[in-house]
Amino acid sequence: MNNGVRANSLALMSNAFHEFCDCMGVLIGWIASGIIQADWGPNIKYTYG
Ligand SMILES: [Zn+2]
């Protein structure tokens, strides 16, 4: 295999991994915001105001 193809496939792999991490970050943020809204959101006792 020549180096160009190997480098290109490595770039694709690292890009795919990066996209996967982005996806996980979004998912974790979404779950965390759901947990925050469920348990720690503003209510009568603890408002943001
Ligand atoms: Zn990204």
TrEMBL record:
<dbReference type="GO" id="GO:0016020">
    <property type="term" value="C:membrane"/>
</dbReference>
<keyword id="KW-1133">Transmembrane helix</keyword>
<dbReference type="InterPro" id="IPR027469">
    <property type="entry name" value="Cation_efflux_TMD_sf"/>
</dbReference>
<keyword id="KW-0472">Membrane</keyword>
<protein>
    <submittedName>
        <fullName>Uncharacterized protein</fullName>
    </submittedName>
</protein>
<keyword id="KW-0812">Transmembrane</keyword>
